[in-house]
């Protein structure tokens, strides 16, 4: 093995030179602009980074940078109300934003014909939005952001850890003393004056970098940028942030009794250094070496030897002015965190004594080389990278220095930063344990100051949006009226080749040579539907075990062999398939397929690894019992399908069924069901059909006959709706799911249902999100969708809503679905057609998108030009056809509703919904006793 490893090491070289061509200039008002031309797809991306994050906020106004990001997606002086959220998707594009400690980013991708409209929208947001902000919009966005906080923080296990760590690690006057999303009382206290002050101070052109990438002409784009952005007021310069690293004189131990956690978590947080500091690169590598992989000391000690937890994690997080290094372990149920803490210290001692090999570090660098290319795959990726380097590292050119710094890290560097920042150094130690298991916390811990929100009925402030707000319009020399669309780009479907190997394996491929990378998957029909009923989860455990070594390689050796190639290989399973997914550098494709064939044809079946994976699966199942979304989803499927249906049980099985599985069961499943005649290999990227066929010749020894798949029972449509309720005590939000079974993914009706759903729940511009989020402020997001399956696919509408508007939200779901046909007009059809037809221009950009297309094509027996066929269907679609689909498949009276929320405050209200007494279920989805 050592000789093989050395040969593989010699194959891996980080990119010595890499060119991402661009032109940059600065407008007179200070806006920094970068242009990158990429004509591989008829699309354009704009990414704008404003150099303001939570670190620029004032105490008492925490969360304001993120809140302002939300405000910026509303009105502006020259763009219609809601254009940011509605118009861009309806032009066939996508858009979003994000805020972190140090910055805020706004980004969009559109077909090239909408490029001028995007310049219009973006420039108006940056320079002409503040006069349109009114009290109604302010209050609505407060509700939305608070709902986001509940969804991401308050209503989730371990959600408050970030708050606790920041308060303990950073002094009160440090810019990182609070979380990005901030405190609820601070958000509620925000005023219109605060909004204007924040805008005037930070949303000035000189505090931003805008990158335009895609199918553009450089000189023409320069002129357009000067027109649209040149008149924006310069404003006062914003001062630079300077590093403010912190240190600890002693370890602080804090605990929290978590309402949603089912297993205990310990987290050690050490102060480190800011981004781009030379030590940050070595700390990044240290995190990987300590926790990632079979040779990692934390994994070996805590998971493998002591069996205290299913996994371990370590990472460095360097930000603009300071950084942290984190060690995280979520233990098995009932495990005392003192025991895990001792094991962490033992693992760190072993690391100091034994060190690590050059091969381990080389493996990390090889993986980073592959990641480097995937991080610049799409035009949006490129735009965001160039902007990030320009705004935070001083120049787009830093992209070259960054990869050089990553690949220059040495073994001595890693050892040095370990001693400097981690070994025997003070840290913040947090213990988050189930609310009734205080005995598990680390000894000497004190109670953390976590304030849990109390949600009362009717407490939230009401708001009224003013659609006719009057404001003073900023005079401009350039006409800021809405520009026209240019010519619609032609849809060009990539060429697909298809062949069959001698053993019956079907192969589909697309050659795409933009980057030296390849994505692929091997999909084997079967999955959980072939498990025995009392041993559901067998396929899942088998798939996981196939990752753990081969007959010729230990788990450690296999992991190293894959890593040294800069590749990824992972076996997984779902209800209907077992899949080996992978990626590699083009130069290492053949070697990667050699490892795939070894994993596929000669699994190791190691008893100790099986026992570990089984224990891990049981822990994960237990962990899910604290997550309202998981609880609701499992119950929804259980009630939607029959007990004998494959979709009626969670992927991976239940505690009871997994406990029944033995290693012999796994082996038997493999022998009976893993056969090439049930498999398809899909591959996209910088590799030819000839190269693929040559590499796959290794699999010709893989033999086996076709397996008969069980016919899933047809689920009859309900004659009346039923409401189910599951108690999640103390929940700050209720998870709502509604839906019914419709048709299989290979049905001719499947795509028409997808199309008909567009205006109901197909994105932020559709009815559910516009009503529940934009009009009411009840939620962070609401959607409906249908996902293809070999059985009757489920149509699902869902959201997470503020607890005290659960009933009101249910009524909105019922109203919008019930009246969808009557409210779906010709203008809805026109929007649907526009979104889908123009959105297809973005359908073939990345390897993941191409691989997804091939996988859909092979799984559901679609023709190679099925995207064009679907586009033709949409182009010729008439209103009565959509109405017929809605009539047949969106009948609200055939649906079930599942709510997972706080029974104490909400269960009694459910009777008012009009569907009788709600059926109360336990967290397993069974009738409550």
From TrEMBL:
Q: Pfam families per the record? A: Peptidase_M16, Peptidase_M16_C
Q: Where do the Peptidase M16 N-terminal domain residues begin and end?
A: 32-170, 514-647
Checking InterPro entries in the record gives: Metalloenz_LuxS/M16 (IPR011249), MPP/UQCRC_Complex (IPR050361), Pept_M16_N (IPR011765), Peptidase_M16_C (IPR007863)
Molecular function per GO? metal ion binding
Annotated ranges, domain Peptidase M16 C-terminal: 190-366, 660-834
UniProt lists the family membership as follows: Belongs to the peptidase M16 family.
Protein name according to UniProt: Insulinase family protein
Q: Which organism is it from?
A: Psychrosphaera haliotis
Instruction: List the lineage, top down.
Output: Bacteria, Pseudomonadati, Pseudomonadota, Gammaproteobacteria, Alteromonadales
């Amino acid at each position: 093995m050592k000789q093989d490893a050395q040969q593989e090491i010699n194959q891996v070289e980080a990119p010595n030179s890499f060119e991402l061509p661009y032109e940059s200039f600065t407008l007179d008002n200070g806006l920094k602009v970068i242009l990158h031309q990429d004509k591989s797809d008829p699309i354009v991306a704009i990414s704008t980074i404003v150099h303001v994050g939570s670190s620029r906020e004032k105490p008492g106004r925490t969360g304001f940078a993120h809140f302002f990001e939300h405000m910026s997606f509303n009105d502006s002086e020259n763009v219609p109300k809601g254009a940011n959220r509605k118009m861009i998707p309806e032009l066939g594009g996508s858009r979003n934003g994000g805020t972190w400690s140090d910055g805020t980013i706004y980004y969009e991708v559109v077909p090239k014909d909408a490029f001028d409209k995007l310049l219009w929208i973006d420039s108006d947001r940056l320079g002409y939005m503040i006069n349109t902000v009114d009290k109604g919009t302010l209050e609505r966005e407060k509700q939305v952001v608070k709902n986001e906080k509940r969804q991401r923080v308050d209503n989730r296990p371990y959600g408050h850890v970030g708050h606790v760590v920041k308060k303990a690690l950073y002094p009160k006057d440090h810019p990182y003393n609070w979380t990005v999303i901030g405190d609820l009382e601070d958000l509620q206290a925000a005023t219109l004056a605060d909004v204007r002050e924040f805008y005037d101070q930070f949303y000035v052109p000189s505090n931003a970098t805008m990158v335009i990438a895609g199918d553009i002409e450089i000189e023409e784009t320069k002129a357009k940028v000067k027109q649209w952005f040149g008149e924006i007021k310069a404003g006062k310069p914003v001062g630079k942030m300077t590093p403010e690293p912190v240190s600890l004189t002693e370890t602080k131990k804090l605990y929290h009794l978590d309402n949603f956690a089912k297993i205990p978590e310990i987290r050690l947080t050490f102060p480190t250094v800011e981004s781009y500091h030379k030590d940050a690169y070595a700390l990044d590598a240290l995190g990987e070496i300590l926790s990632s992989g079979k040779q990692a000391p934390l994994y070996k000690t805590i998971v493998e030897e002591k069996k205290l937890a299913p996994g371990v994690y370590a990472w460095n997080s360097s930000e603009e002015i300071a950084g942290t290094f984190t060690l995280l372990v979520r233990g098995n149920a009932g495990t005392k965190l003192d025991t895990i803490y001792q094991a962490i210290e033992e693992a760190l001692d072993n690391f100091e004594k034994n060190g690590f090999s050059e091969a381990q570090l080389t493996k990390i660098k090889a993986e980073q080389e592959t990641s480097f290319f995937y991080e610049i795959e799409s035009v949006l990726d490129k735009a965001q990278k160039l902007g990030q380097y320009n705004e935070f590292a001083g120049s787009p050119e830093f992209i070259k220095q960054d990869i050089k710094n990553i690949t220059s890290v040495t073994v001595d560097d890693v050892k040095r930063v370990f001693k400097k920042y981690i070994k025997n150094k003070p840290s913040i130690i947090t213990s988050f344990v189930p609310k009734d298991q205080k005995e598990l916390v680390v000894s000497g811990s004190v109670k953390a100051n976590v304030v849990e929100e109390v949600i009362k009925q009717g407490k939230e402030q009401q708001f009224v949006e003013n659609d006719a707000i009057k404001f003073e319009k900023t005079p401009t020399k350039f006409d800021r009226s809405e520009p026209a669309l240019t010519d619609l780009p032609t849809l060009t479907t990539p060429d697909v080749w298809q062949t069959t190997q001698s053993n019956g394996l079907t192969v589909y491929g697309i050659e795409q040579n933009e980057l030296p990378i390849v994505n692929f998957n091997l999909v084997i029909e079967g999955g959980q539907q072939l498990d025995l009923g009392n041993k559901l989860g067998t396929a899942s455990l088998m798939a996981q075990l196939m990752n753990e070594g081969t007959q010729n390689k230990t788990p450690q050796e296999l992991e190293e062999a894959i890593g040294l190639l800069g590749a990824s290989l992972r076996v997984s399973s779902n209800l209907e398939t077992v899949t080996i997914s992978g990626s590699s550098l083009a130069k290492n494709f053949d070697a990667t397929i050699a490892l795939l064939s070894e994993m596929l044809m000669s699994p190791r079946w190691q008893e100790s690894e099986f026992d570990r994976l089984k224990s891990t699966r049981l822990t994960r199942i237990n962990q899910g019992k604290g997550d309202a979304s998981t609880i609701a989803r499992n119950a929804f499927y259980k009630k939607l399908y029959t007990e004998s249906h494959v979709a009626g049980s969670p992927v991976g099985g239940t505690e009871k069924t997994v406990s029944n599985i033995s290693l012999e069961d796994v082996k038997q499943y493999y022998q009976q069901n893993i056969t090439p005649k049930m498999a398809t290999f899909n591959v996209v990227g910088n590799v030819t059909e000839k190269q693929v066929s040559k590499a796959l010749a290794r699999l010709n020894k893989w033999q086996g006959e076709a397996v008969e798949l069980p016919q899933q029972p047809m689920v009859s449509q309900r004659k009346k709706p039923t409401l189910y309720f599951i108690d999640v005590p103390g929940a700050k939000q209720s998870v709502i799911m509604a839906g019914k079974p419709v048709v299989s993914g290979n049905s001719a009706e499947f795509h028409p249902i997808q199309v008909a759903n567009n205006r109901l729940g197909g994105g932020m511009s559709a009815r559910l999100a516009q009503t529940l989020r934009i009009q009411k402020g009840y939620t962070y997001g609401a959607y409906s969708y249908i996902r293809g399956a070999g059985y009757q696919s489920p149509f699902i509408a869902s959201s997470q809503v503020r607890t005290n508007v659960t009933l009101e939200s249910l009524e909105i779901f019922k109203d919008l679905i019930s009246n969808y046909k009557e409210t779906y007009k010709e203008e809805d059809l026109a929007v649907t057609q526009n979104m889908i037809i123009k959105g297809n221009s973005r359908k073939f950009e990345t390897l993941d998108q191409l691989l997804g297309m091939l996988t859909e094509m092979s799984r559901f027996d679609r023709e190679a030009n099925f995207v064009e066929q679907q586009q033709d269907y949409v182009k010729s679609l008439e209103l009565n056809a959509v109405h017929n689909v809605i009539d047949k498949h969106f009948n609200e009276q055939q649906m079930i509703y599942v709510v997972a929320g706080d029974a104490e405050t909400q269960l009694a209200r459910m009777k008012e919904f009009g569907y009788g007494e709600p059926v109360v279920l336990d967290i397993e989805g069974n009738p409550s006793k």
